Structure formats: C-alpha cells, structure tokens
Amino acid sequence: xxxxxxxxxxxxxxxxSGQRDLNPETAHAxxxxxxxxxxxxxxxxxxxxxxxxxxxxxxxxxxxxxxAEEALGHTPQELGAGRVEEALAARTxxxxxxxxxxxAVRKDGSHLLVHVVSAPITDADGxxxxxxxxxxxxxxxxxxxxxxxxxxxxxxxASELLARSLDPDAGLQGVARLAASWLADVCMFDxxxxxxxxxxxxxxxxxxxxxxxxxxxRAFPPDPDAMHMTAALREGRTEILTDLSDDVLRERLHxxxxxxxxxxxxxxxxxxxxxxxxxxxxxxxLLLGCGDRPPFGVDDVAVAEELARRTAVxxxxxxxxxxxxxxxxxxxxxxxxxxxxxxxxxLDDLLEEILALLRKELASDAAAVLLMEGDGRHLxxxxxxGTDGGVGVRVSRDDASVAGPVAAGRPVVVHDPTDAEMGxxxxxxxxxxxxxxxxxxxxxxxxxxxxxxxxxxxxxQDEIDLIGLAAGRIALAVDRAQAYEAEHDAxxxxxxLARTSDVLGESLDFRSALGSLTHLIVxxxxxxxxxxxxEPDRSxxxxxxxxxxxxxxxxxxxxxxxxxxxxxxxGAGGLRGDDALAVDRxxxxxxxAEAGSEHRAILRGLDVRSVIxxxxxxxxxxxxxxxxxxxxxxxxxxxxxxxxxxxxxxxxATAIDTARLYxxxxxxxxxxxxxxxxxxxxxxxGIELAAVYHPAGGGGDVGGDFYxxxxxxxxxxxxxxxxxxxxxxxAAALTGIAxxxxxxxxxxxxxxxxxxxxxxxxxLRQMTEHRFCTVAVGRLEAQEGGARMTVCCGxxxxxLLVRGDGTVEEAGTPGTLLGIYEKVQLSDLSVDLRPGxxxxxxxxxxxxxxxxxxxxxxxxxxxxxRQSAGLSAAGIADRIERAVLEFAPGPPADDVAVIVLRLTxxx
Length: 907
Hints:
Layout: H1 2-17, H2 24-39, E1 43-47, E2 53-56, H3 58-64, H4 68-71, H5 76-79, H6 83-93, E3 98-105, E4 111-122, E5 128-137, H7 147-164, H8 168-182, E6 186-193, E7 197-205, H9 211-215, H10 230-234, E8 239-241, H11 246-252, H12 256-264, E9 267-277, E10 280-290, H13 298-342, H14 347-362, E11 366-372, E12 378-385, E13 394-396, H15 400-408, E14 412-415, H16 419-426, E15 433-441, E16 444-453, H17 461-505, H18 510-521, E17 528-534, E18 540-546, H19 552-561, H20 566-572, E19 575-576, H21 597-606, E20 610-618, E21 621-630, H22 639-675, E22 687-694, E23 705-711, E24 717-724, H23 728-748, H24 752-766, E25 773-783, E26 786-794, E27 800-802, E28 808-810, E29 829-833, E30 838-842, H25 844-847, E31 850-851, E32 854-855, H26 857-867, H27 873-887, E33 896-903
Antiparallel strand pairs: 1-2, 1-5, 3-4, 4-5, 6-7, 6-10, 8-9, 9-10, 11-12, 11-16, 12-13, 14-15, 15-16, 17-18, 17-21, 19-20, 20-21, 22-33, 23-24, 24-25, 25-26, 26-29, 27-28, 27-30, 30-33, 31-32
Helix pairs in contact: 1-2, 7-8, 7-13, 8-13, 13-14, 13-17, 14-17, 17-18, 17-22, 19-21, 23-24
C-alpha cells in the first residue's frame, strides 16, 4: 500500500502542477492507487516529514469534512484538526507503528473519536520519508459519547504538548486550543507578573469564525487584587459562574469595552481555576461557555482542575528552569568578563571590551571606569561606554558619587540618585538607577566601576553579586595592565629619546627637525606640544602639534600671543603637575586666574589640565622653550614627567646649538669659497661660457676644486680648472695661490705649458707641506672660420671636445702633478674649433662619483656629451650636473666643477 500511496502522491503533484505523468508504470500505479484508496471505507492520509499532507482519500473527506484540494499541501494544524498528528508524529518518526483511539475535530467544529493506525514511510535508503495513517470512526460523533475516554485523551495530549514546549507561553497557547476544543468554547491563561500584575498569555476559541472577536480579550487581563480573583489566587480554589449576567459582568470586568467584548462572543458561563504548584499560585485558567452550550458540569470541572494542575506544574518547571538558566547565564557572563579581562594587556583595549560586555550582560545604558591617581586622593575617568565624552574627568575620593563603594568595599545600588550621588560624569543624563563597585586588589582600591540605567531598574542580589565578582576580576586585570602600562611607558620614553636623537641628528637643518620633534611627542607624552625658538634677531619662531587637528591654530595662537620667557622657565622649572604645586611655578601663559577675557577663552577652548615648560639650554645659551600640555587625556604631570621633558629639551637644545655653530662655520666657508671662484664669466662675442660647481657633502667646508675664465688683451681668452689636494683652510690657501698664479702668468705667457711651469715653481717655493694640485689651462684665439684651442694639463683629466655632429674626443694629455717635482712633463696640444663645437673642462669629481660600487666614469660622460651635441654651453653644463647628482644616492662625495666653452660663430 505504501508503494501505491507513493504513486498517488506523485500523481497528485502532477495534477497540482498541471503536468502529465509520462511514465507508464507510474501513471498506471497512480490510477490503480487512486481507485483503491478512493474506494476504501476508511480514511487514508499521508504526510511528509514536515507534516504537510500529501494524500487524502474520499474516506478522509467524509470523515473530517475537508476536500482533497483543501487538505493537500497543508498541515493538520492549519486545518484545525491537528491534535492527531501531534500525538503520533513523535512515535512514527522513531520508526514505530502506533494504533489506538484519539479525539479529532471536523471542519464544521464537531468532535469525534477515531481509531487510528499510523506507520512510518521510508525511502530506498531506509530514511524516514513521512507517515501513512488509516482512521475509522470509533463512536458516533456525539459530544457526550464516551466522555471519560475523550477527556483522558485531552489530558494526555495536553501533557505531551507541555512536555515538548520549551517556551511556556507557546505551550499555554497550545493547551488553550485543546481545552477550547474539548472542554469549553473559550479558554484563557493569565500569569502573575511582578511588573504588570497579571499578564494574559493565551487565548483560544473552538469556533474559528469567532476567534478574531475572542482575541480582543487579550487586552483585558484580570486585576490580581480584584475581589473576584480572591478564590483562585489567594484561596487556591475553583470558582464556577453558571450565569454571566449583566450585574456579574459589571462587577468583574474592566468597563464597557471589556463587557462589550464578552457580550459579542455570547459568553454564558465561566470557570476560574487557580494555577498552583509547590505551594504557590502562578496564575489562573479561565473557561467560557458560549451560546447554547450547557453549563459546566462536575466532570468538566474535575477534568479542568486536573488540566490546570498539570499546566501549573509545567509552568512552575519552566520558571525553575529559567531561574537555573539565569544562574548559568550569570556564571557564563562572569566567565566572559574574566576571559575579556585576561585577554588584554593594553589598559584602554581592556576597559573598552569590559564595559561593552558589562552593558550587554546587564542591559544597562552606560558604564564607566574611574581609576585612582597617583596621589591616592583623586580618581579620573579612564574609559566610558554608552555616553559621549567624560574621559579625563577628575573627582575627589570623597565625592559622593564614588565615596560609597570605596568606603564600603562592595557594590552599592542607588535608585533615583541625587546630583551629588551622580557626580560630574552622570549629571544631566537623567539616570534613575546607579550601580557602583570598587575595584580592589587586596586592601588597595585601584578604581571604581559604574553602570547606570535611565529607567528604574530593580536589581536582584544575583546581579549585584555578579558585579562584585566581576569588579574583583577587573581590578586584577587593571592592576596588571597598569603595571604593563608603566613598563610600556618607560620603554616608550627610551624609544622616544632614541628617535629624538635620530631626528635631531639626521640633519643640520634643526628648524625642520624641531617640527618633527613636536609630532614625536604628541600623543605619547602630551596632548599638544609647542617649541618656541628665539632667533638671533630676538624674533620668535613657533612649531605646534596637537592630537586634535582642529585645535592646532588655537594652541599656536596661545603660544604666539603669550610666549614663555626662556630665562624664567630655566629658573623656575616651569612645571604645573598638581594642584598642590605653588602657583608661581605655573607659566604665565597658562594662569587662567590672571588672564584677560580673550586669553581665558583660549585656555578654556584648549581645556588645559597640566603643563611643563622646559628651557632649551645648551653650553650656557638658552635658545627657547619646549612646552608640553595635557588636556583631553586628563593626564596629570609629575616630577618624573618634568625630568623626562628636561632631558628632551636638553637634547633638542644641544642639536640647535650644534647646528648654529655649524651654520656659522658654513657661512665662513661659503664666503671663502665664493672668493676663490670668479664672480662672473666674461662675455665674449661668438662664444658661450657656462660653469657649475658643487662642493662635496653638505658644503660645510671649503672645497679644493676651482675654475676660472679671463681675458688678457691680445693673448686671447684663457680657461683654467683645477683640483687641490685636501679640504678646508689649507686647501683654500693652495687654491688661492694656484688661481692667482695662473692669472698672473697668463699676462706674460701665451703658452698654457709655460703658465703651468710657472705655477709649479710657485707652488714649490710657497708650500712647506706636501700638497699638490692638478690643473688644466686652455687658451682660445680666433682664426678664419672658427678658433683654435691650445690646452695643457698638469696631472688633470684632459678636456673633452664635442663636435657639432656629436663626435667626442680628448683635447690634451694628462701631464705631471704640480707642486711635487722640480721637473714636470707638460705639453701643449692645439685643436681647431668650428661653430657649434664645444670644449668641456671638468674635475675628477664628475667621473669618480660612485653608486653601489660603480663609478660614473669617462664612458658615461662621453655618451652624455654625444647626446648633448647642439645644446648651448649652459645646457651642456646643466645636463652634466643633473646626471651626476641623479647618479649618486646622496650629496656628491667629491667636489664637482665643470666649465664649458662653445663656439657660436655669430661674430
């Protein structure tokens, strides 16, 4: 039969989807199955695993009153006849075959007793695929037939329903439906509630057409203190009302709307039964008889009382289960708080997660942690949740908002707290309930934990105990985090000192370094920081960094308009770390009491809490001040902070002083260097001249390279370039001798070779130390169609001749170093130049510049010059300079000097 029913199910699905069964075997089985099932004298139904009806024969239509189209695709519950399936589903799902008599309801609402055989359907794999049930009417459909068996079935089904339901409200609604179907017309359940008095949790009506009217009664739960509830709630006995007259309704109901709702369902009689279990009353069950239903008899009341008793036990069990679950939840909450407390070493991260968890566990509106400050007399708000701001607010240990829990050493609950009990953190928020607990580690109080509600919140002892236990664990975590924070601060300060030294030492441009210093300090050591530097002309230069970018200009305005006196800061220490410190130690710029209206407005806008002003003093000179300020963080400076700020200021001052000394020396060096180079190149018709010079490194010393270009009347135009051994003043002296000797010799000599011989003799006579130089000299004289360049090199790289077509060649031979030997080998070499040709003189700083072990080199220079053919003299010189500077990773390692002559032929 199961195979036949399966075929019928497929046929039904085909009919419902409008498709034809194309499988002959299936189609044939479906036709035969339908004929057999439809002609069967019994009701045959099948259901899917989810309870949806999948087969419904004519016998089922006749027995229950629903057509196949009305039944298929629905559950028995949706048809209002579902108690049979509810009672049997658990057994058949377990693979059992069940048979017995159960009560059922027809479509028209009439009742009947049916004999049922129910078996599981399995698929090819043996898995549960649904149920098949066969039902026959066991007795005439008369309400009075076999009442004991029907009522016993009612109690059985109610007990199973209550046992399966995890939600007591849902279970009561199911029991109400059963009672309304088998015991009364309407059933309602009301439970006692601490807040609402009584709460109506279930309403059911046996007449589905009347149900919307009955649902209106949910809005009218009884008053537990009313006289008519005395019997059920206080005396624990059943009250029977055989006639709900107008007088009875006016006496017991809430008013005209309530009376009208009862009249519309035509309620005629009632039974009020207590829901009592384990010596306490939990609520009441109300049964109503409507229309022509006979008044409730003794048997009805007996069954109702047994149903009420079973219901009360189930409700009480659910209450006990809920209480046990709440205790388990409290333990889990404590465990979650403990886990969160132990999972962080960073104090701010710890408090953020703890407060969020605490608010979630207690459903509170806001929470905060206040930590004890180093003086032991004040607490400061370190973290909040659920409220904006408040961090940094300080309160005295004697403040009423924290004194209670601190003194009691245990959690304190305050309902409708006064302004004083709220404290500055909660004032104005409308808090109705406040719970505060001390954070204690042994005998020591490290802070206070607060949480609050904006509505009245009754707190049970379990919740208060939870707060106490949580506070103990949080206190240990806070103490551990504070120890870690202290160690972290110490390490951070060492790192800050190291980074400060790096920033101040990486460049001699100390002014840009001071700006970087302020950003290093904020926010690690201060909420905002300022450096006020007194320049040599007594003007002030200011750098400011603030953790809040919107307040940078306000802080800069304060320091600019009210600069600190460096001498006063050096003499007084410039510290305001605590209220107990003398007022005369507070820098004038931060004395609000003595400030004018504009000055006071700036101070209040910056919310200044604590200040350190340290002098920038080094080698007996004070260059300015370093100002550190706390504001939003609420931190308070102490002597340790002042000592650290003083060390920072000392390092900054040393860097400033060193840089200024270097700048003074650099200025002298640059002045001397300029004196060794020609101020201007001569302007010669038909010729372009250009030169570049870059000292080695940062240019803080006098370089040893030089170049020159000058005219000597009839002798023509001379060019010279040289490289002197060494740096500094000795090199400058040798450079001066070389340059001026070349100029003097060129007045008498036309040959570059003779000029260099004269220079060699001059160096040997005047230099007592073993110093030497390399020099290249060239003389240009005009000739028809161009010019002739005669070149002589004394140990110097020969100049490079760049033809107009891009050909590059050397113009000269290296020769002997000058200033060492009496006899030197020098020779003149002449080359003819045509318009567009150029001659490039350079020092070895060009070709010997290095990057990662590779030199710029002669080949790279010649290739560069080939690509520069046709450029002006200035263009060629600029291209050489850029190529060398871009090749090196930093400033050039040696002096770079280049002078370029290009023949234009315009005149």
